[in-house]
Amino acid sequence: MLSSRKFWNLAAIGGVIAAVILASMVMFSRPVPPPPLPAVVDAAQAAARKDLPLPKLQRYVARDGAHLAYRSYPQGRTERPEAAVILVSGSGGSSVAMNTLGYALARAGLPAFAVDTRGQGQSVGRSGTRGDIDYIGQLEDDLEDFVNVVRTDHPSTPLVLLGHSSGGGFALRVAGGHAGMLFSRFVLLAPYLGPAAPTTRPNSGGWAHAAVPRIIALTVLDGVGIDAFNHLPVIAFALPPQKAGENTDDGLTRMWSYAMMRNFGPSDDIIGDAKKSRGPITLLAGSNDEVMIADRYAEYFSAVKDKVKLSLLPGVTHISILNDPAAVVGVVGAVKGN
Predict the structure, then answer these.
(1) What is the dotted CATH code of the domain comprising 8-52+70-242+249-336?
(2) Are 93 and 121 in contact (CB under 8 A)?
(3) What is the arithmetic mean of pLDDT over 179-203?
């Protein structure tokens, strides 16, 4: 039998070893950018070249004083709109990705607002770092602040939250949380439901590379209240590198920190969030999605099929769901509750 002294000596040694292992996982595990993914990058670039001018970038002031970016698409009709829509793009992108949808919703009489989520696009936050946020939960705070901006011109219009990919996962997170009460409906476009979800292809179809050991270590540390390392990068996206010597910022986000990864996407209780949603949820995905396995959404949400309405769009890809004419018609219909 071990003496008390020997036991505590062994415990101390074990603690030191565990600390060294965690420190190694934090310091030496880094995300490596995967090769650019043509299926996503080329489609996104083609969409950006469509003959639709980008509305002027505007700013609102978040509660911490950061000036965050968004684009506005006023409705083209004079009657009171049946809803106003907040659009949230996916990982690596910005409000630019929502341009076609923004115009389509406005033409349908639905004012739309595409945000640059803090950490993406031109919303770099007070830290000035793209791909990072100050704390987990800040994105919900930012969304609540932006709703106050929308309410200036639309004080009583029902609000719809629409998110694509990681933005779709984030919209579902919002639906089950405190900020969900601000919205009457949620529309999820090919939502990312986490790396272990049966709807997610390995490495998101080549879109993302995660530094798994670092993520595990930071999760352990965060679980015991140590968040000092949450700003370290843990995911790299399959985007082309910024060209050397380029003076213009292309607005792309090539890496995410641990804090950004934990906040911009679904919570740990996806089905629970769907159950708690105060408004109906519509999920649309393309049958040819290269990042998600679209035909598995139905099985995944089978326990809450009364809360989540599913539509599979034939021939549509992960990006073309944002700009394919037939897909856009379906998305506008979903926003209207059709």
Answers:
(1) 3.40.50.1820
(2) yes
(3) 96
